[in-house]
Amino acid sequence: MGAVTGFLSNYSGNVKAAFALWPAFSLLLTLPILAYLYHRDGRLRASSVVGTYLAVLYLLGIGCFTLWPLPDGTSGPGITYGIEPNFNPLGLIGNIREDGLRAVFELLFNVVFFMPLGFIAKRLLRLRLGTTVLLAFAVSLLVETAQLTGIFGMYPYAYRCFDVDDLITNTLGGGIGWLVAAALGQVLPDAPKPVETDRHPGFVRRCVALWIDLMLTGAGAVVLWSVIVAVQLFTAATSLPEAIRVVDSSDASSLTAWALLLTPAILFLVLETVVPWVNHGSTPGGAFVHMTCESHERTTGWRAAFYAARTLTLAALVALPWLALPFLLIFYAVAR
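The chain above was modelled as a monomer; its predicted structure follows.
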């Protein structure tokens, strides 16, 4: 028991680091987490929310346990002490012979360490066993590569040891974790159920849908901006005859500026007006979280008025959030 306690005490700092980072990462990932849970279940369940945030803590733990503490100075154990990568898959046998019980604890720890990943893959992500094994291998390979390359070149040396045995034991742990989750599913089933489109979504779901739409708007704007700038640079670098020039070079810059300014507004208008108009009230974000903004049928005229008012309200919310949000919350509370 003392050997186990001594082995685990070496990682107390890693545990503290993971818990210290957990609140910030949880806050940062809140909207993606809510979007996934709404997409998967069509509603928020307390068990799913808690499980997802614990999964965030676990993933932070993987990073902190394998890469923390970060080195300082200009040299590290990978060079100073000659720690070389282990590419021998049977090296763990020699380690057990040399280090005895400590090597056994390390082997078991590497297996148990990735069991939660397999459990999460089965229970939360609903992945198959083969996919889970590949996921565990990929995560382990990412970690080992980060150790081998000094976090992908952040440090000019490998301050941790790349060990192929870790790949094997971590992957095995991921598979075992999946089997444990599958066995638990026989007692506490969590089978997916058909999700219906919510015609009366709550405020949180509406916010998540809008966030997704804004992310799509931003991504689309970046792509179109890149195209506009590329065309502008190509035109400036190409000597076209005046007879076939569509726009004078003196006007090209102002047109480009207007195009860059109007692109996100046009995309926002399309996603929030055109798409839901032809898609039964669901924007791309709304469709992802299974909701529609149309709570009941309307005639064409009233439907057009509804979409005009809705689009103007959302535009005001995006442009002046601190001014528009209080009024929107009051309106929502009264309307509900």
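DSSP finds 15 helices and no strands in the chain.
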